[in-house]
Automatic annotation (TrEMBL):
Residues 26-305 form the Ppx/GppA phosphatase N-terminal domain. InterPro entries: ATPase_NBD, GppA/Ppx_hydrolase, Ppx_GppA_C, Ppx_GppA_N, PyroPPase_GppA_Ppx. It comes from the Bacteria. Gene3D superfamilies: 3.30.420.40, Exopolyphosphatase. Domain 2 (3.30.420.150), Hypothetical protein af1432 (1.10.3210.10). It comes from Methylophilus medardicus. GO terms for molecular function: pyrophosphatase activity. This is Ppx/GppA family phosphatase. Residues 313-476 form the Ppx/GppA phosphatase C-terminal domain. The keyword Transcription regulation does not apply. Keywords: Hydrolase.
């Protein structure tokens, strides 16, 4: 749990597709008051090549911006800063290379979060900045390369979706010629509607008030306010009026409107077309402009205890397991045994939750096939989106699920990670000891580790009473030897 006192300062860094933002807030009586806010239009979302690699200029702009943020954050404790990256870095093939360099210049870890986690945090940010009520809310955030949709009440997000459409992507695809024509708008709106249609039945008629957050909604609201419309809401008819202004201007460089910032000029066409599609597909008449955004959700999430964050992730993993028909009694038994062996090795406590979640989900691949179920399960975890998780955490869990059975050679490249090896040993032993799908008695077992050697000591009586388990342990010993590790089973 964070050491939060009165006047503690927290910082959130949002690596968005169009802009990077830094929000610094001071904690006062459970609320967060702004201390500083920095925003730079980095536009990484517009600089992916045909293979979805970030172009060199996108690397350079992003790193220079984060270096400036890093200077502002100098002296902040690591636990008081959280940096999150969204859709562009979810998509980019070379995102790992960028993140590695970005963390050095920023001076803090950066998480690539999933779309549904982004949606959850957006809802947190919006709901915390609104007067509290019992209203059922729809929150929409149109970003540079993704749009998030959330249904929630109070501070809880109940339904979340993240779709791959946004102001930068749509501007590149449907306004690539730079022309604001009726034809381009028609194509862009129809394309956006076809995607939003896939989730519409979950959202239409399910809320009492609709809110728009950040990005495109904020940009459109600023332009409408500059034209004399209300500053706190957007009406459907106003979007048609704005579209006609753009069509009359014909191109972004000829567009001159009060309230339109330079960093939004090139993407206003794509953003407006997506916003129109959102209104029409979800049958929205009025969209209230929300003050909260992703970065505020990150700050308020940091106020929650570590246990609360862990519970959210456990809930997400459990829901996934049930979706794939996992036998949860057995999964929990495997978790208990795995954690028993992991504790015996006196390994890193901070990685115990990852081992727990891997144990719970190690059989999700059975829903596809018992053959190679570890590979199927790893694929599911690497390609799913779960609330509370960073992509790096899901990948770490997927590696454990991949390695919970079969040969170890497939993970040889990761064996320089000592903590992963300890987690893997604990999980594989747990699967062996629970192979009869009963919780075994562990008091007669002792596991020790010294460098690259594990020794499991059993009583001779136990070994004679469990011949099948003893045979599996002997086979396990041979597998570890092939990778230069020693797993020795002894009796006494």
């Amino acid at each position: 749990m964070l050491n939060i006192t009165h006047d503690t300062q927290l910082a959130a860094v949002d690596l968005g597709s169009n802009s990077f933002r830094l929000e610094i807030g001071r904690v006062v009586d459970g609320q967060i008051l702004r201390v500083d806010y920095l925003k730079e239009a980095v536009r990484q979302g517009g600089d992916l090549d045909e293979e979805r690699n970030l172009k060199p200029q996108a690397f350079e702009r992003g790193l220079k911006c984060l270096a400036r943020f890093g200077e502002r954050l100098k002296g902040f404790p690591a636990e008081h800063v959280r940096a999150v990256a969204t859709q562009t870095l979810r998509e980019a093939t070379n995102s790992a290379d960028f993140i590695k360099q970005a963390q050095k210049v920023l001076g803090y870890p950066i998480e690539i979060i999933s779309g549904v986690e982004e949606a959850r945090l957006i809802y947190q940010g919006v709901s915390r900045m609104l007067p509290q009520s019992d209203e059922k809310r729809l929150v929409v955030d149109i970003g540079g390369r993704s749009t998030e949709f959330i249904l929630g009440q109070h501070f809880k997000a109940n339904v979340t979706e993240s779709l791959r459409l946004g102001s930068v992507g749509w501007s590149q695809k449907y306004f690539a010629d730079g022309q604001f024509s009726e034809r381009n708008f028609e194509r862009a709106e129809i394309a956006a509607e076809s995607i939003i249609d896939m989730i519409a039945n979950r959202y239409v008629g399910q809320s009492e008030v609709a809110y728009g957050a950040s990005g495109t909604v904020g940009a459109v609201a600023d332009v409408l306010a500059g034209a004399g419309f209300a500053t706190d809401r957007i009406e459907r008819a106003q979007l048609d009026w704005l579209k006609q202004i753009l069509v009359k201007a014909k191109s972004a460089d000829r567009l001159n409107m009060e309230g339109l910032k330079d960093d939004r000029r090139a993407v206003i066409g794509g953003g407006l077309s997506v916003l129109i599609a959102v209104f029409d597909t979800l049958k929205i008449d009025t969209l209230k402009v929300a003050n909260g955004a992703l970065r505020h959700g990150v700050l308020y999430d940091m106020l929650s205890s570590d246990n609360a964050a862990e519970d959210l992730r456990t809930i997400s993993i459990t829901r996934l397991c049930k979706q794939f028909g996992v036998e949860m009694d057995h999964a929990n038994n495997v978790s208990k045994v795995a954690l028993y062996f992991y504790d015996a090795m006196q390994a890193c406590d901070s990685h115990k939750p990852l081992l727990h979640w891997a144990a719970l989900s190690h059989e999700i691949g059975w829903a596809i096939s018992h053959t190679d179920c570890n590979k199927h399960g790893a694929y599911i975890l690497d390609n799913t989106e779960l609330m509370g998780f960073a992509q790096s955490e899901l990948h770490a869990i997927s590696l454990l699920v991949l390695g919970h059975q079969g040969k170890l050679r497939k993970l040889a490249a990761d064996f320089d990670n000592q903590d992963l090896v300890c987690q893997l040993m604990a999980l594989r032993l747990a699967v062996i000891f629970c192979h009869s799908r009963r919780l075994p008695t562990l008091k007669h077992l002792q596991l020790t580790r010294h460098k690259q050697q594990f020794v499991l000591t059993l009583s001779s009586q136990w070994a004679s009473q469990h011949p099948q388990t003893y045979y599996l342990l002997e086979e396990e010993s041979l597998l570890w030897q092939k990778l230069g590790w020693q797993f020795q089973v002894t009796t006494q």
